C-alpha cells in the first residue's frame, strides 16, 4: 500500500471502514463456551470457544431461516446448534447435521471468519479471508508483556469509529475535556511533531519542566513518594492501521534526561486503544492502561483502570454529542486545524486502504 | 449461505471465445456490475434454446481481483438440450444476461491439508481454488482426472502453475484414478473438494464414509446433470392428477410434469434440497437417482425420488448395454 501524496484528503464525516484488516472482536475473557453475539463491521457475528478453547466466529444467522446462532448452544467438540430447528454447524461453519434427513445439503454453510487470539484480545478478519495474514495484527504487546501491568474495558461508543481515532490523535482536547485530571494548559502550548509510514502515524509531544497534572503527580508519587518538583512530560501517539492507537505517556523528574532517552527517573504508561466499527455510526472501543511501575499492586491496577475509565467517560460524552450534531447538521462540513495533522494522516491511510478495496466511493 | 446468494442480474459482453480442449470453449466475459468472484463460485446465465430462454450455470475459472473480467469454460454436453451448444455459438461482442457470482462451494481458508479433485469439465470449479491455495502456500494436491489428454482443459497451464502438486490421471493412458488410494491419503485434518461426474463423486463419497472420515470435510459441487445411466424417454403416471406424461430424453421429470400442468414444489432443481421429492408407487424399470439429498440407503429403498434430476430407465444395467429392452420405463408416483 502506498500513500499518494498528491491526493487531497476528504473530510468525509462518516468514513467507511476497511474490511481487509484485523479488528478486535472481544477481550479474551469475554468469549466463552456460551455463544455471544457482536456486530462487527456491520455484520452480526456469533462468537464462542470450542472444547479445546479455540475461538470460533460464524455469521450470526442460520443458513436455514436466519435465526441467530448466538442464541443456540455449543455442542460436541466444536459445534454450535441453531436454536430454531436444530441444524448443527462445526467451527468451519459447515452443517454437520440436518433435522429429519440422512444427508446434508452441500450448500448448507454459514460464513466463518478467521480469528487470531493475541495480546489478550480476540482479533477477527471480516474481509477477504485469503488475505488474513496473522502478521498483520497491530502491535499491542504491552497488554500481556510481563514488564507491564494493568487492565482495560470496552466502551460501546455510538459514533463512527473515525471520530474516536480523531479524538486520540489530537490530545490538545485534554486541556478542555479532561481539565483537572490529565489536562492543563501546557498541552496546547507545546509543539508536536508528526511522522508517518504507509501504515502508521506517530505524533510526539514533549513538555519540559512543567507542573505535573494531578493524575500524573499521583502516579509519580507511587514510585517516588517524596518528589514534589516539576516534570518533563511526554505523549507519543502511534496509530497503526486501521484503528489501533497506542499512547506512550509518562512523566519524569524535570531535567533528568527523559527527552534524551533516560526515563529511569519517571513513570511510564501505555494507553492501548483499538476501535472496532460496529455500524457506520457506532463502534466498540477497547482500551487498556498498562504501566511499568508497581507491577504487583492490584490496588494500582484497579485505581488506574477506574481512573482512566472516568476520563474516557468524558470523551464518550463528547463523541456521542459530536455524532448527534453531525447527524443533525447534514449540510455542514468539517474544517481542519493545524492540530488535526495526525488525524488527517490517519484519514489518508484509511482512504488508501478503502480505495484498494474499491470502497472509497461507498461513503455516506 | 442464503444471504450472499441473492441473484443480481446484469448484462455481460463476450470478449473472447477460444477452444481449450476437445469440445470445451473458454469464454471471457466483461460484466456490467462487476463483483469479485470467490473461489468455487459460479454465474447463472440465460441461454436461448429453440427461441426460449433457459438458465444454465457455469463456474468461474478465473477472475481478476475486482471481478471486471470473468472467465468460464463450457463443455459441449453430449446429449445437450441446447444450452452448451448455444454457449459454443457465442461470438465476441455478443451480450448475455448473467448473475453476479453466486457461491455454493466456498473454499475454507485454514485447513491443514487439501485435496482438490477435478473430473473432466469439473476442473472449472476447482481451478480457482487451487490458485488461491497456492498463493496462500497451503498444503494441497490437485488431482485431475479425464478420459484423454486432448479432452482435458487447462492441463498445460495447471501443470505450469502447480508443478508437483498437480497429479494427472488419464483413462486412455491406463493411469486411471484409484479412488480408495486417493481417499486413503486423507486424514482427519484433510478437506477434499471435488467436482466431476456423479459416478466419480459417489465412489469418493462411499469410500469417505467407509473410512469414517468427517462428512463435512468432503465438499463437492454438483453440476446437476450427470447420472449413472444415459437419459432415456420414460412414462410417468400421476393417478391423483389423472395424468400420464411422457418424459423425453431431453427434459427432466419435473419439467415434463410442469409442462403437463401439474403444480410442483421445488427449490434448487439440482438434487440437493429434497423439496421436489415424489413417492414411487409402481415401477417397471429402474430409478437413476441423480440427487445428493438421499443417502445410499434411501436410494436403494426406491420408494421416493427427487424428480428435478432423477429419472427412470428401462433396466438397471442401462439402456446401452441392454440392446433389446422392451419399451420405455413406466413409473407411477404420488405427489403432494
Ligand atoms: C453450479 C454449476 C456449475 C456448473 N459449471 C459448469 C462449467 O463450468 N462448465 C460446464 O460446461 N458446465 C457447467 N455446469 C453445467 C451447465 O450448467 C449445463 O448443465 C451444461 O452446460 C449442459 O447444458 P445443456 O443445456 O447443453 O445440456 P443438458 O440438456 O442439460 O444436458 C447435459 C447432460 O445432462 C443430461 N441430461 C439430458 N437431459 C436431461 C434431463 N432432462 N434431466 C437431467 N439430465 C439430463 C445428459 O446426461 C446430458 O449429457 C454447471 C452446473 C452447475 C449447477
Ligand atoms: S433457522 Fe436454523 S435450523 Fe432453522
Ligand atoms: S428441487 Fe431440490 S432436490 Fe429437486
Ligand atoms: Fe480524551
From TrEMBL, chain A:
The lineage of its organism: Bacteria, Bacillati, Actinomycetota, Actinomycetes, Micrococcales. Keywords: 2Fe-2S, Iron, Iron-sulfur, Metal-binding, Oxidoreductase. It comes from the Bacteria. Residues 22-124 form the Rieske domain. GO terms for molecular function: 2 iron, 2 sulfur cluster binding; metal ion binding; monooxygenase activity; oxidoreductase activity, acting on paired donors, with incorporation or reduction of molecular oxygen. It comes from Paeniglutamicibacter gangotriensis Lz1y. Pfam families: Rieske, VanA_C. Gene3D superfamilies: Naphthalene 1,2-dioxygenase Alpha Subunit, Chain A, domain 1, Rieske [2Fe-2S] iron-sulphur domain. This is Rieske (2Fe-2S) domain-containing protein. InterPro entries: Cholesterol_7-desaturase (IPR050584), Rieske_2Fe-2S (IPR017941), Rieske_2Fe-2S_sf (IPR036922), VanA_C_cat (IPR044043).
TrEMBL record, chain B:
It comes from the Bacteria. InterPro entries: 2Fe-2S_ferredoxin-like_sf (IPR036010), 2Fe-2S_ferredoxin-type (IPR001041), 2Fe2S_fd_BS (IPR006058), Beta-grasp_dom_sf (IPR012675), FAD-bd_FR_type (IPR017927), FNR_nucleotide-bd (IPR039261), MRET (IPR050415), Riboflavin_synthase-like_b-brl (IPR017938). SUPFAM superfamilies: 2Fe-2S ferredoxin-like, Ferredoxin reductase-like, C-terminal NADP-linked domain, Riboflavin synthase domain-like. Residues 232-327 form the 2Fe-2S ferredoxin-type domain. GO terms for molecular function: 2 iron, 2 sulfur cluster binding; oxidoreductase activity. Its cofactor is FAD. Residues 7-108 form the FAD-binding FR-type domain. PROSITE patterns: 2FE2S_FER_1, 2FE2S_FER_2, FAD_FR. This is Flavohemoglobin. It comes from Paeniglutamicibacter gangotriensis Lz1y.
